[in-house]
Design brief:
This protein has helices spanning about 10-15, 25-30, 45-55, 80-90, 120-135, 145-155, 200-205, 240-250, 280-295; strands at about 5, 20-25, 35-40, 65-70, 90, 100-105, 135-140, 160-170, 185-195, 210-215, 220-225, 230. The protein is α/β, with parallel strands linked by helices. The chain has one domain (about 5-160, about 195-235, about 285-305): Class I glutamine amidotransferase (GATase) domain (Rossmann fold, 3-Layer(aba) Sandwich), CATH 3.40.50. Helix 1 (about 10-15) packs across helix 3. The longest helix is centred in the C-terminal third of the chain and has 17 residues, at about 280-295. It starts with a strand and ends in a 13-residue tail after the last helix. Keywords: Acyltransferase, Amino-acid biosynthesis, Cytoplasm, Methionine biosynthesis, Transferase. Pfam families: HTS. Belongs to the MetA family.
Length: about 300
């Protein structure tokens, strides 16, 4: 799929080296089709890394996608150059009068805080409320999934005794579900989090459906029954080395951190890990874009949310 992004975005060169088709404005306007408009609210600290990972995931269909990168106005990024933020990001105020086919809310390193204590929580709740009428379907990742489940459905997060950290085996709960189309019954996916949500809370809610769980990592994928809200508690978008980078970061800071499970060959951090979740990750995003965005979004984007 051609991803339409700013020609100067650093991710563009990386994706082109991977033979992923990206285009800039000049090429996009020559195609007589309406691109899907996807906004990404990037709450991760290493924003350039997350941009590249998510754009890679959005590349695996024949659809043209136009991406808008958003950042909270109530929080200033500390780990990304200000020049990058001012060049490629905008805030909710500048887009709140627009409509979007899809919206992605990333994870954030604030899991151990109460939701209400997060500096941008009020702004985030305003954005999440806005997505109900301005977005066809919203995809929530990790802490973003916990925040969405809490705000929209009152599902509380639960602290873990130890960080859920590694690559874990999952299984499909609902056979033949469109979001899981093409999945093996068992598949791998990474997790990196200190809190969780409970399967029984998802199952008990009449508007939610539990789609995938892990015997060790717990709830993985849940979804609103109308398809407008998708919740993924892990990080299927991660690169092969992302967990390694997080592990080394915490070790260097002297933080208590276990070796990520099921990740390093022979459980040896000196050996280079390989991705065991890439095919599942691409399927997950392709299915979301196809069945819950493209197939249901109106051709006239200004009519999103009018039903």
């Amino acid at each position: 799929m051609p991803i339409k992004i700013d020609r100067n975005l650093p991710a563009k060169q990386i994706l082109e080296q991977e033979n992923i088709f990206v285009m800039d404005e000049d090429r996009a306007v020559s195609q007589d089709i309406r691109p899907l408009k996807i906004a990404i609210l990037n709450l991760m600290p290493l924003k350039q890394q997350t941009e590249t990972q998510l754009l890679r995931m959005l590349s695996n269909t024949p659809l043209q996608v136009e991406v808008t990168l958003l950042t909270p106005k109530s929080y200033k990024a500390k780990n990304t150059p200000e020049e990058h933020m001012s060049s490629f990001y905008t805030t909710f105020d500048s887009v709140k009068d627009h409509k979007y086919d899809g919206f992605i809310i990333t994870g954030a390193p604030v899991e151990n805080m109460a939701f209400e204590d997060v500096i941008y929580w009020k702004e985030l709740t305003e954005i999440m409320d806005w997505t109900r009428k301005h977005v066809t379907s919203t995809f929530h990742i990790c802490w973003g999934a916990q925040a969405g489940l809490y705000h929209h459905y009152g599902i509380r997060k639960v602290p873990l005794d130890r960080k859920m950290f590694g690559v874990f085996k999952h299984h499909v709960v609902v056979e033949h579900h469109n979001l899981l189309r093409g999945f093996d019954h068992e598949f791998m996916a990474p997790h990196s989090r200190h809190t969780t949500v409970l399967a029984e809370d998802i199952i008990a809610h009449p508007e939610l459906e539990l789609l995938s769980v892990s015997p060790e990592a717990g709830v993985y994928i849940a979804m609103s029954k109308d398809g407008k809200q998708v919740f993924v508690t892990g990080h299927s978008e991660y690169d092969p080395l992302t967990l390694y980078q997080e592990y080394m970061r915490d070790k260097e800071k002297g933080l208590p951190i276990d070796i990520p499970k099921n990740y390093f060959p022979q459980n040896d951090p000196s050996l280079t890990p390989e991705s065991t979740w890439k095919s599942h990750a691409h399927l997950l995003y392709a299915n979301w874009l196809n069945y819950y965005v493209y197939q249901v979004t109106p051709y006239l984007i200004d009519t999103v949310g009018d039903d």
